[in-house]
Please model this.
Amino acid sequence: MKIYPIICIKDQPAMLEQAADWFHEKWHIPRSAYAESMQESLRAEAVPAWYVVLDGRRIIGGLGVIENDFHDRPDLTPNVCAVFVEPEYRCQGIAGQMLRRVCDDFAARGIGVLYLLTEHTSFYERYGWEFYCLAQGDGEDEPSRMYIHRA
Model:
């Protein structure tokens, strides 16, 4: 399995514009929301935080950690969000590498619990996440699955 570098935007601020464009393209949330959160991450101790995976200079995956991933459970924080791997790079363990990196980084900062809201079933369990509860996402008709990861 090839290991691709995982870059934290805080450590490579020159990646911010490219990363904001990439996340916007994948999730269709305004680019400015990503850019603003990434700018804030440059000054933040922990949250928010943004990560991208590179193949050369191309972003092939990424995720963020924010206070709340637009759901009705503000007590469940911080949240891993916007997890995405380009289709041609899937099934290579990249998502697992990203999730391990983020969990390790946050555990090292004294944040041993992370949450993640998703519609996936059985995917995140492979990486040590446990189903926690259902939560209602903003603008969603049905509740989604909330997962928890404990360091």
About this structure: Residues 17 and 49 are 15 Å apart (CA to CA). Helices lie at 16-27, 31-43, 94-108. The two ends are 25 Å apart (CA to CA).
